[in-house]
Design goal:
3 helices, rod-shaped
């Protein structure tokens, strides 16, 4: 059960702060607990709203990006033939110039 903030505030306002009649510790504890609950609720609310904004922005970015077209399948051997470098030759052991 959440205590009524206006009732607690009225109780604290009516209490006299003289040394003979200090503020009721129970009322002080209730006001402190209510303040803590409100602060935590605010943090949770801000976090949830920020999460919603981030999710919606990411969905918009995905929607704005063009969809890739179908993949064009190419023969791998034909592609390797196009990229063949003619400077690469087979090694011939007879071409070695070693003097033994």
């Amino acid at each position: 059960m959440i205590p009524d903030f206006s009732a607690i505030a009225a109780t604290l306002a009516q209490a006299q702060t003289s040394p003979s009649n200090p503020i009721d510790p129970e009322a002080y504890r209730q006001v402190s607990a209510l303040t803590l609950m409100l602060a935590l609720l605010g943090v949770v609310l801000i976090t949830v709203l920020a999460l919603i904004v981030v999710i919606r922005r990411s969905q918009r970015r995905k929607a704005e990006q063009p969809k890739p077209g179908p993949t064009k399948h190419v023969d791998a051997w034909a592609e390797s033939g196009k990229r063949f470098d003619s400077s690469i030759v087979e090694i011939n052991p007879e071409d070695d110039d070693f003097d033994e």
